[in-house]
Amino acid sequence: MSPPADPSIANGADPRALEALLSFWVEVGVEVSASAAPMDRLKAPPPRAASPQAAAPPARPAQNAPPVPSAPPRGSAPATNEAAVAAARDLARPASTLAEIEQALQAFEGCALRHSGAVRPIFVRGDPATADILVIGEAPGADDEAAGSPFQGAQGRLIDRMLQAAGLSERALLINTVFWRTPGGGAPSANDQAACRPFLERAALLLKPRAVLLLGAAAARATLRTEDPILKVRGRWAHWTGEHEAFDLPALPTFSPAFLLAQPRARKNAWADLLTLAARVDPGAGAP
Fold first, then answer.
1. Parallel/antiparallel/unpaired status of strands 248-254 and 238-241
2. What's phi and psi for 172, nearest 5 deg?
3. pLDDT for 45-66, tens place per residue?
4. pTM, whole model, 2 decimals?
């Protein structure tokens, strides 16, 4: 699968093209960039000449000097805010309806996204009275925040069309791994997802869906607690076991709508995943 080809990426004329390219690389699991020039990474680097400063012996620390704290390893994730997770669990657990979970979200201050420019929490879309499929995305966007409902804009329209074509529109409840818009529309951090997870799990426990559809790597990471790229886990059934609530649900990862908009050729695989989901919830129905 090739990344989106757009000559405007090179000269920066269209930021949307660059965003689509970055979305592609994140979705397939690329974590480091490489230069355009070839490089022999197996070749030993040339010896560096010793500078006068380097040749001088290190100064001895003063007697009884306090130890210098070591820096955390580069690239390590910050520790999860256990207090925020505990507060979320305490707020979510008493809720007996989705409406009560949404009310609890209004009182929750522990997610950093709430204090990063987001206007309001965005919870679910769909009818819990008819829904027996839970569709989980990564995070609300600007369109969602403006409408007060998840999966709006181009991404929402794409998912709606696919669910309708698979005969699953009325059976799907749509939700995200976090409930506040991320700055710049980026993927939510693991800490943000951890803080919101008790609310997500409580919603799943109350809905009791027959199956779960995970849209993208961020959704798979939050529920299945895996760091595998979406290309590795897509189309394979897995078990979503609650971390704070007792349940075990069949979950099927597939591509995110942002990825499908950037890579239309991947929609064939996403459609196959939807048919797999439909067959799971209605074994005798057959393809629509």
1. antiparallel
2. -105, 135
3. 555 555 444 444 545 545 554 4
4. 0.74
